[in-house]
# Entry
Amino acid sequence: MASTGEEISDILDDQDAPILVGRPSVGCAVVTLNRPGQRNAMTFDMWHELADIYDQFSEDDQLRSIVLTGAGGYFCAGADIKEFGTVRATAEGAKEYARRVDRCTEAIAECPKATFAAVSGPAYGGGCGLAVACDFRIADATAVFAIPAARLSIVYGIEETRALYEAVGLTAAKDMLFSGRPRDAQAALAMGLVSEVSEDDALTAALRRAEALEASAPLSIAGTKLVLEALTKGETAERAERIAEATLRAVNSEDYIEGRSAFIEKRAPRFRGH
# Structure
């Protein structure tokens, strides 16, 4: 897998990597967790690598959407518990592990692109956290969600817990975290954990949703995500400044002119992200 600073293009063809990156179109990227033999459980290094991928994608002006999925019919079984005897064997090790998970979750949640999780099979623990960090979660009938933190004597991280709470509410979040009880796709839909349960496979459905959003202005999506972040995490001076900058960037853009022209001319706009 690519190390820090490597370009995404350098890892597109590395089919043995634990994380694969593909571009089915210029505007869409697919990120695939690729350890099907371990149900795509996340290693210590993978948390860092996945965060780097989303950070790099955040700077790609051509990209509109990112779909996160898993290989072999599994989304992600969570953290690789077999590593815990080494990487989480001490208090400092546990803190560093939590920092890596939080950074990964933040990189996904704060990405200015539209983000999707295409969930087939298990999305457990940290895998559920990855899904919830995305803007939209598209499941198929095989999807199962659970957070067994209390059964492992683990305190779920603040970023993942906040995202879960925002998705399902306080009582449902407590139930998931306290009990560890699995939810199938329909139960997840009923509680607001997923956006859609598709009759197709989850990846096909997520790509369809991503394609539909290509008609939306990317600067508008990026700015709106900043506004929603301020509403959920609290408005700070830094967030207010970023929102103001995003608002000005959008209103001074060629896309703003294109949107008005397309409306007047009764045609579909052709947004370019600048």
